[in-house]
Amino acid sequence: MQSQRETVEEAARAAEEAARAAEAAAATASGNADAANAAAEQARTFADQLASLAASLSGPSDFVYLLALFVLAIFVGYYVVWSVTPALHTPLMSVTNAISSVVIVGALIAVGADLSGSLNGFYPKLFGFLAVALASVNIFGGFLVTQRMLAMYKKKEQ
Amino acid sequence: MGENLPALLYVVSGILFILALRGLSSPATSRAGNRFGMIGMGIAVLTTLFVLENKGFGTWVLILLAVAAGAVPGAYIARKVPMTAMPQLVAAFHSLVGLAAVFIAWAAFLAPRAFNIGEPGHIHLQSVVEMSLGVAIGAITFSGSIIAFLKLNGNMSGKPIILPMRHAVNLGLGLLIVIFIGMLLTGEQSPMTFFWLTLFAFALGFLLIIPIGGADMPVVISMLNSYSGWAAAGIGFTLENMALIITGALVGSSGAILSYIMCK
Question: Looking at the whole model, is its pTM more than 0.80?
């Protein structure tokens, strides 16, 4: 990636120089001014294209960012639960389950997608609808049941 | 609203989920932890509603109906189920997350344009891999959780059921899943292939959990919990959605660690 980017940037620089030279030629040789100007214009367009290509190559792709996020979150999840007290195993499991219903985000996107151009827009909406309903059971049920378990735990403590 | 604000809000909800998991590991902070989880979920849902493509009246009606259809029984069950039935309740809730993941992957498969992952029949190959993994893991979570629920609830014998040749059958099903993902990648992306893929994963989920005895079920539930996280992350990559990727990874790895701790 790095070397590819350097090559493109070098080419962009060369094209820029060519454009400048052509402009200079246009200034001196007034007879060929029009033709030289056209050449200068072409060279400049080419330089711009190369520059934007270089810019697009300069950073990692979106996928790499998301993958990095994914890996870092795995490490956080790994370290965060090690110290759990045995009595809290079931509530922790229950809250983890409630949190996993964040898939509702995907379901909402399916229901709220613009499907006007699609051949069969009915089924994606239906599947999205069902998924929103299932995940909602889990969100409300999961957090409330965790709350109930924790309330019981508190009573036991006192 | 640009793309940056929703992404930042998804990160905020991810942080709240981390605080929730952390809070639940000690009695003093556990209730605050649960509240962090609720707030995080609220932020994730509201953010998604703000960035929907189609904000028409019909969409809002559908979403309200679906949320109500889930919230009412969910809250009712959470209040009524006896405390002794908690493990099987968590298993039952799990199966729902698995099934939801299957439905979402199917929606993305049938309407890829809506998710910016290509045209019907010409979905980007990377997205095909992600959604295939999402659908397979979701289906395994669903059917496995159903078995765990039935065993804990006493609808099914808690004794391990050892089927003949089970390792060969499971291996065969696993291979079939891989082969069908390969077919989606190299050949025609037909809904039939995706359907079979889903079916094989359902069967694998049943068969994986059937030989496990009732006493080991809490560990199994925690493991299935972890699976549902990986399914969410797989779908998150398909939709390029930070909330799903962060939370899926969190749930996936913390669930795996929790089942390990419970084994000790």
Answer: yes
Q: A65: which chain B residues are within 8 Å (Cβ-Cβ)?
A: none
Query: Is the minimum CB–CB distance between B63 and chain A shorter than 8 Å?
Result: yes
Chain A residues touching B83 at Cβ < 8 A:
148-149, 152
Q: Does B181 touch chain A (CB under 8 A)?
A: no
Task: Quote the tokens at residue A97.
Answer: 């389950």
**Torsion from C-alpha of A32, A35, A36, A40, nearest 10 degrees:** 170
ipTM of predicted complex: 0.92
Q: Residue window 56-75, chain A: list those with CB within 8 Å of chain B.
A: 62-63, 66, 69-71, 73-75
C-alpha span between B218 and B261 (Å, rounded):
11
| CA atoms of A25 and A19, how far apart (whole Å) | 10
pLDDT in tens, chain A (158 residues): 455 666 667 777 777 787 777 677 666 666 566 766 777 788 777 777 777 666 666 566 788 889 999 999 999 999 998 888 888 888 999 999 999 999 999 999 989 887 766 566 788 889 999 999 999 999 999 999 999 999 887 666 55
